[in-house]
Request: fold
Amino acid sequence: MKVLIKIGGTLVDDPAARNSVARQIAALAGSGIRAAVVHGGGRQMTRFLEERGIESRFVRGLRVTTDETIDAVLKVFAGSVNTQFVSAMQMAGAGAVGLTGVDAALATAEQLDCELGLVGKVVLSDTRLLDVLAGAGYVPVVACVAGGSAGEVFNVNADSMAVAIASSWKVDRLVFLTDVPGVLDAKKALVPELAIPDCKALITAGVATGGMQAKLNAAMDAVAAGVQEVRIVKGSEPDIVARAMAGEACGTRIVQDRAVESLG
Reply:
């Protein structure tokens, strides 16, 4: 089995949460499952820029990335955040390897919108390096930075990066470790399972907005591309990775079509 785990910036920013998640992923990899990680780091990025007197500007929820900002992206995402999580994985007993999408053309992107500057959308993912590493027992840890065909470096939304890599690597499960318990309905109750039509209905009704809308769009893209199951779970819950992998009713499970899934 292959699984890709996307870790939100809040979890990698807190040392206790980071170490807990690292231990869980190390245990997963130790059980024989081929695992890879994609992480964000938006909170750390904002703090890094603020300390240097640089204002963060967002358009449609995405950070405007200038030449000055992309240098900070490399220092924070590919540098401190990635190295800290790899170190936590090593401490937990896993052979972790820090990467970006630039490495071995793991993620090739194009500019998403000129208004956003050096923000990219992944258009191609070559995951052969993940096969080599995971096949040898290592856990690839990928920062959300992608390369361009003309040598550019792009800042990429971590959810989108995770979907692109998960789809290309043909994972069985994509798990989003977030700071919320899952998808909530209009009454703020947790929804245990959604199919693509259900996700679209929540977005159309204005129930899923902002970050959760983005998560659902990413999840729909993943299952439409062949990922069997996407889980959105709260990363700070005890043993959440093992519970999600065991099929326990936690968070929100997203599949392409529940009727078809039930027949399988």
In short: Residues 193 and 253 are 5 Å apart (CA to CA). The chain has ten helices and 14 strands. Confidence is low (pLDDT under 50) at residues 260-264.
